[in-house]
Sequence to fold (649 residues):
Amino acid sequence: MKALCWYGKEDVRVETVPDPKILNPHDAIIEITRTAICGSDLHLYDGFIPTMEAGDILGHEFMGEVVDTGSEVKNLKRGDKVVVPFTIACGQCFFCKRGLWSACDNTNPNAWMMEKLYGYSGSGLFGYSHLMGGYAGGQAQYVRVPFADVGPLKIPDGVPDDKVLFLSDIFPTGYMAAENCEIKPGDVVAIWGCGPVGQFAIRSAKLLGAARVIAIDRIPERLQLAERGGAETLDYSRCDDVVEELKFRTGGRGPDACIDAVGLEAHAMTPSGIYDEIETRLFLETDRPMVLRQAIQACRKGGIVSIPGVYAGILNKLNFGAAFGKGLTFKMGQTHMHKYMKPLLQKIMDGAIDPSEVISHRVALRDAPRMYKVFRDKQDHCTKVVLDPKAA
Amino acid sequence: MSSQLIDIPALKARRNVNQRKRAPKALRIPLIAGGATLAALGIIRRSPLGIAMAAGGGLLVYRGITAKGGWSSSLIYVRKAVSIDKPPEELYRFWHNFEELPRFMRHLRSVRSTGRGLQWVSAGPLGKSFSWDAEIVEDRENELISWRSLPGSQIENQGSVRFQSAPEGRGTEVRVELMYQPPAGKLGAAFAMLFGEEPEQQIREDMRRFKELMEAGEIATTDGQPHGRRSKITTMLKSASGYGRTDEQMGAQRVVS
Fold:
């Protein structure tokens, strides 16, 4: 089959590799009909995530048709159309049973690596480094899906792929970020980053009853898309002080909740941004928590900082004193996908939201290497790239 | 904790006297060179951080100088705990079926009941294997099993596993304690290759696999999945770091149906 393989920083190639096969009895093999490049794939592309190996197949947002099932798979059969969550969960452990699906105990074969770094290991993820399990990803023609009875969500006939593909990650991720804000009537939610996750966080915050959503970015087409989703916009490149601007717009009180939908690769030509640039180049810190610092500073007293943006390692000069002084609550982590997919499919079917709105590019799998660069550099008004592995 | 098979304080005392952890000889030059560099950088910094760097560098140099060669025949003591979302009876029953232990203990080839007790055979490097006989010392249903090697075994060892109900339906806390006295000489070197420099990690992995089998019904793996061309270095490192059997070699053993 054809698959997009990682070979190093800014080096991804479409190669011919062996087809996947059933390795465990709860596995299924999916023939992929649609897959996407995620903003978090760009962290791999930029070499920010450790424990990648040359030849690893990327991709964790995908859907397709079941073509083979292991001996213990009961809920799926050949021909079923499914969307697959990017986190792999067993459904049987302490964490799965409590709805903390992305903390599953039993799906990361390299759990020991993560335990060394983080104390404990989360669930395995598709196509996201050996630290996260080393599972081959879905930017390919076929993929092996473990615990196929637990993760994949069956899609009824007649629903277009483009509308449901993002149930695999970014829609639930944006939704959980908004849900973590515990929105109450009258609340103002500020969202840093109007990439795809930010867009879904905006729309979800509105669905959950936020009175106002303030979306922060600098890319015009992303700000326009945010406006279409019901947000007021704040172009940080035209603003001296984002914290002061937010304070002014919220009557001096500050946003009730702040969402960091940017994560570890934040950048800006400010003292804080330049500091992070230098520190990461000297390997004195691994992540650039510029947005996080701003969100902490801007958030109102007793407010919530919700973090769907990915952080991986060590953060320096974090204004933890401000967080303590204001009594903030932090909510973060990989999305508990399995909890959100079904109810959010219902919202799509009801017409409450159309996720395909964020797609800017539809291309064949073989064009993926070029599109990684275009997406990373935000060229060509790129907001979201969908790949068709069947296109010639 | 209830009375333990292994007297930990006595063991620890013995470790501290005789088996102060020393770095392997191969690390001597990197330790001394790296330590000296760090110390020098620290000294020219003239700051609190610099003092810390100098002290750290000095420690590394010391570890380099005291590094010793080969595998030490020191006593190895390991204990690990894991919580499993199943009742103690079920876990005890699976474990008590000793022939089944190789299903999650990667370095074991087989366990067989013999007239004298249990014969353990472990998969060694280069197709070689070790074997030893052990007897069950204590067996309390659904609670505890402990064993010890019979006198004259190649690898002197003793161990125990305990199953304790966790409160409020949180399954069972499983605690394993193991002690080995690795053999000296050539056999010792082969033993080191088999159990690596980190027996702790291997016990932890065995217990993780036990948990996965019991809870999820299979052991998670990516062995045998597709990938693009690997670099030669990655392939070399992988084959060198392996011990016991791969997931592929364990095959259907990795599954409970």
Observations:
- Residues 14-21 of chain B have pLDDT under 50 and may be disordered.
- The radius of gyration of chain B is 22 Å.
- The beta strands of chain B are 76-84, 108-114, 117-123, 129-140, 144-149, 156-165, 172-181.
- The domain at 76-219 of chain B is CATH 3.30.530.20 (Alpha-D-Glucose-1,6-Bisphosphate; Chain A, domain 4).
